[in-house]
Amino acid sequence: MMERVTKKRLVLISGRAHRELAEEVADHLDIELSEANLVDFANGEIRPRFADSIRGTDVFVMQTHHASGGRSINDAIMEQLIMIDAAYRASAKRITAVTPFYGYARQDRKAEGREPITARLIADLLKTAGAKRMISVDLHSGQIQGFFDGPVDHLTAVPVLETYLRTHATDPVIVSPDAGRIKVAERMAQHMNADLAFVYKRRPKGTTNVAVARDVIGEVAGRQCIVIDDMIDTAGTIVSAAEILKAKGASEVWAMATHGVLSDPAVDRLKNSEINRVVITNTLPLPPEKQIDKIEVLSVGPLIAAALNAVFEDTSVSEIFGGENQA
């Protein structure tokens, strides 16, 4: 009779969309980042080939869904799917898809007729490729957790943003840029023991990337206003919110968001806006040409590392956030 004690092993593999964040997570976990050895063929097809055996290991395939290095957001997603498939076929014991920024999250319902629900499609693709669970940070809407057929660990960067505010802000008013974010802003205001305000805006029907701020509910005159959102994409929402806050007498306006997508013309808009400071996290890379003085980047590396370690050790992920990561 043979008795064996099997050793669990954690393997972290990264795509090319944001390798720096994966390297930081690996440092926090005190492991080496495994090499995916990704190759681009002449016609644009992608092939990974893992250097070491991953048989029986707990594999985390990390890719933020983002365009970078001449590759599109769709390339980033496809790259992650192919790496998951490679890990599945290399007999990994369990595969977790780590997507700090989840692509197509805003297509989470049919806003008008004959539209796709692409956020669900992405979840199905990750599952089909071989991912047994998923980890993401500040999903655009919480119900996306239900699109994935398996456990989802929904992390939030709010503690990182709050720590920054406690150190740098003075008696702030937390502002939701629209009705949809009011819950997040309300929770942050409670944690900070701060006042709350929100901007009423509307999106003209049939338009994309257009939002018009209309009014402010709450006292903002003479106050430092912190506008909190899950992402800054073209910055239209946040810039129009800042304009109306300044018009209502705000002394200063900061913008805070987990994901700095910053699609054109976001950086120019932010540079020329009423916003004094923009605080984002590194769920997405910030290329040098977008690094302006107003923008500060905080790291979610320690949070992601703690979550990966909890999943690997079969301990609670929600305890890291005191249970407040589910909303």
Structure keywords:
single chain; 327 residues; alpha/beta; Rossmann fold; 2 domains; seven-stranded mixed β-sheet; five-stranded parallel β-sheet; 14 strands
Description:
With 327 residues, this protein is of the alpha/beta class. It folds into two domains: 10-156 and 301-321, Rossmann fold (3-Layer(aba) Sandwich); 158-298, 3-Layer(aba) Sandwich (Rossmann fold), CATH 3.40.50.2020. It contains eight helices and 14 strands. The strands form three sheets. The chain has a seven-stranded mixed beta sheet with strand order 10-9-8-11-12-13-14, sandwiched between helices. A five-stranded parallel beta sheet has the order 1-4-5-6-7, sandwiched between helices. Helix 2 links the parallel strand 4 (58-62) and strand 5 (94-99). The termini are far apart. The relative contact order is 0.13. The mean pLDDT is 94.
Secondary structure layout plus pairing:
Layout: E1 10-14, H1 19-29, E2 39-40, E3 46-47, E4 58-62, H2 73-89, E5 94-99, H3 118-129, E6 133-137, E7 152-155, H4 158-168, E8 172-176, H5 182-192, E9 195-202, E10 212-217, E11 224-232, H6 236-247, E12 252-260, H7 266-271, E13 277-281, E14 295-298, H8 301-312
Parallel strand pairs: 1-4, 4-5, 5-6, 6-7, 8-9, 8-11, 11-12, 12-13, 13-14
Antiparallel strand pairs: 2-3, 9-10
CATH topology of the largest domain: Rossmann fold
Strand order of the largest sheet: 10-9-8-11-12-13-14
Shape: globular
Please state the structural category. alpha/beta
- The helix-strand sequence is EHEEEHEHEEHEHEEEHEHEEH
The top-level CATH class of the largest domain is Alpha Beta
How many domain units? Answer: 2
Whole-number mean pLDDT: 94
